[in-house]
Amino acid sequence: MNKKLIVALDFDNADKALNFLSNLDPNKCLVKVGLELFISEGWKILDLISERGFEIFLDLKLHDIPNTVAKSVKKISNFNVALTTVHLSGGIRMLEAASSEKGNIKILGVSILTSLSQNEIFEITDTNFDIYFNNLISIASSTNVDGVVCSPNELDRLKNFNKLKVVPGIRNDVSDDDQKRVMTSTEAYHKGADFIVVGRPITKSEDPKKALELFI
Ligand code: C5P
Predict the structure, then answer these.
(1) Can you say whether the dihedral through the CA atoms of 143, 165, 200, 123 is positive or negative?
(2) Using CA atoms, how far apart are residues 157 and 18, in angstroms rounded to an integer?
(3) Whose CA is nearest to atom 3 of ligand 1?
(4) Nearest residue by C-alpha to atom 13 in ligand 1
(5) How do the pLDDT tens digits run along the chain, 216 residues long?
(6) Which of 31, 42, 157, 168 has its CA 20 to 30 A from that of 187?
(7) Cβ < 6 Å from ligand 1: which residues?
């Protein structure tokens, strides 16, 4: 089976994360370890998850000088990690440095966080969302990163982008949380998402096993 679902394990400790894994099937999804869980538990959480048969997306969204990012990616490549993230806004030299140390891991460039509104982008960049997004995608195209993380609403603009498209901001029900640019899983797959990332709709569900099936 070609897995396309990544479940975000946004828990604050290993016990909660590992207990939650009993609701998931490694043949149906990968799992994402983000900053909260990684900072709480460190490298050992990667081995504990990997021992249970799951492929790991380590989402630390690295953004630093090229040398520091390259050394960090090299360290990550010692672990059983399938995908990891760096910010595209770190620039071409940072992305090339990261790619040069990736080993067997796929590097994804984060474009624009799905929690940011157009107004917030303007406050940060003094330009509009479209220009900023296109610039970031050009940077991704011209480097050796394996793909990008983007909001589902940007998928239409990426029809000619032939690297991986990994898409958070997925909601199959109406929700009122911090994700502003959302779409259903069916639409996102239809529009070309190679992977979707789903957190709270599965992890906070009263019936996570059933919830998971809705996103496959
Ligand atoms: O709970 P929810 O489905 O909103 O989780 C989305 C996950 O995807 C979170 O772990 C978040 O950090 C991550 N993410 C995101 N937007 C990005 C990149 C990653 O929401 N651009």
Answers:
(1) positive
(2) 37
(3) 199
(4) 168
(5) 589 999 999 999 999 999 999 999 999 999 999 999 999 999 999 999 999 999 999 999 999 999 999 999 999 999 999 999 999 999 999 999 999 999 999 999 999 987 788 899 999 999 999 999 999 999 999 999 999 999 999 999 999 999 999 999 899 987 666 666 689 999 999 999 999 999 999 999 999 999 999 999
(6) 31
(7) 8, 10, 34, 110, 113-114, 149, 168-169, 179, 197-201
Name the residue at shortest CA distance from atom 14 of ligand 1: 168
Total residues found in the chain within this entry: 216
Which atom, in ligand 1's list, is nearest to the CA of 198?
Answer: 3
CA nearest to 168, candidates 210, 106, 104, 215: 215
The residue among 179, 181, 197, 177 whose CA lies nearest residue 189 is 197
Phi and psi, residue 201, nearest 5°: -60, -20
- As a whole number of angstroms, the distance between CA 81 and CA 160 comes to 28
Cβ pair 39, 13 in contact under 8 A:
no
- Tokens 């946004």 belong to 10
Compute the distance from residue 150 Cα to the ligand 1 centre, in Å.
10
